[in-house]
Amino acid sequence: MKRRRLCPHCGREVLKNAAFCPYCGFDLTKTICEGCLKKVDLSLDTCPYCGTQLRKEVIVPEVLNLLDDERYKIVEVKDGYTVLREDNITLEKYKPVSLEDFFYTSQGIYYDLIFLDEDKRLPVLLPTYPVSSLKEYWDILKNNEKVRLIFEIANRILKHSKLYFSSSGILFDADGRLIVNVSEVGKEGYLSAVAWLKEFYRALQPEPGSFFHSLINSEEFDGIQEVTDLVNYLYASFSEYAPLEIDSFAMTSQGLVRGHNEDNYMMVEFVKHGFDGLAPSSMKVGLYIVSDGMGGHRGGEEASRLIVKVIAEEILSYLAKEHVFFDLAPVIGRAITRANSVVYQKNTGAKTEREKMGATVVGLLVSGDEVWYFNVGDSSIMLHDGRSLLKVSVDDVMFSNKKALTQAVGVVESDKLNPHISKYRVEENLKFLLCSDGLTDLVKFSEIEDVMKEGEKVKNSTQKLLSLALSRGGIDNITIIMGEIRRNRLF
What is the mean pLDDT of the chain? Predict the structure, then answer.
């Protein structure tokens, strides 16, 4: 294979002894500094204008102790690769012609070839520094970057599935480009594309019990024989993964005194599927609302029903059409405002004060690893992080002779309503509780905490709390939603 001489200005091939490029007229005794883009003599080591090193530092993905090539000299031998520096800038390079060459060309790191003997040649690669081992590179990535790398490598190998890949010496440059020896023929130390991909994923060493560890140690993964099937398996599996799992349960009772139940509640859970341009993603979404109505002639029941319905419609319609969720406070605020307007409008047509209605509301929205919570009135939201119970809702009440609400949904114009909206990031497993005051008026905070920390399933804990409130008279409607959010480890 002959070397070709390339013009550093236009990149076209020129005659070996040409003084000027016949295409663009560039003086071939000079090169172009990549730092300042000025013309400089080939004989210089550094640019006299900006100090940029003119002789490129390149690597070959193999350990070399000797090199018989006048264009390069060995600078340093690293673990799995050798650093070279251009010693004689002649503008001469070998043209990529084989499948092996085009593997590196496709990543943008191919620079040249060196020949060790008639049968063995090595690619000369121009990476971005630093060059890292697989473990070093993997350890600095965030989870979403790790997912992208998994699919980048799978798709890259899929395009070159006829090649064989070295089972050792996997490297990455600073831009995440794969540096590994490849061969057009199978030989000792080289694996087929699908076998190499399997070994590559196992070399990432995910923690036992994590999603990815279970994935790559499954019988289905072991049985895959084609790269295409492996890629499809990864896409299908990651499409089903969600960082959070939710176990929830709800109960409501009119109690032992009231003639009907003015509480209403709603629970909605679904998985939001997405795609970030390379890798599939899934996000568990949960919406939980409890509303405690007030008003005569079943007006409270109607108010709480409308409030739950309108808030859920507003939030769920937004979640259905949007693919990325950022600040959800404005979305929640608009939902509460609309619910308030709907009930307030009905109140304007009421003939007597007794016919007017309103309701308290508490809600919790799980989105990704964030929990948004909101309330108006005196119904409660509590979070248990495994150590202690925290009440996060704000009670809109004042006490004189008896407890009185300072605000509720539907009784004032929307510009006078001040809903409480905040969020909590789920770092570990988390339990949550939403309830009307039919529970909290009869069951102490410390008793609720004791039940929630017992470690029972949320269904059993919910039933236990309801039974406790009923055993103490059940003087009001009682509604409870309890849930447990569990983090799924990805790696």
Answer: 93
Q: How far apart are CA 104 and CA 114, in angstroms?
A: 14
> Residues with Cβ < 8 Å from 460, sequence gap 6 or more?
none
Closest among 356, 424, 344 to 390, alpha carbons compared: 424
β-bridge pairing 263-275 and 280-295: antiparallel
Please count the other Cβ atoms lying within 10 Å of the Cβ belonging to residue 209. 9
Cα–Cα separations (whole angstroms), residue 425 to 124, 352, 371, 411: 47, 45, 6, 33
Residue 13: count other Cβ atoms within 10 Å of its Cβ: 13
**Which of 68, 63, 113 has the alpha carbon at shortest distance from 83?**
63
How many residues comprise the chain? Answer: 491
Q: Say yes or no to pLDDT of 281 above 90.
A: no
Contact 365, 287 (CB under 8 A): yes
Within a 10 A sphere around the Cβ of 174, how many other Cβ atoms?
Answer: 12
**CA–CA dist 103, 26 (Å, integer):** 31
Phi, psi dihedral angles at 338 (to 5 degrees): -65, -40
Residues of the chain with pLDDT > 70, as a percent, come to 98
Determine if the pTM surpasses 0.70: yes
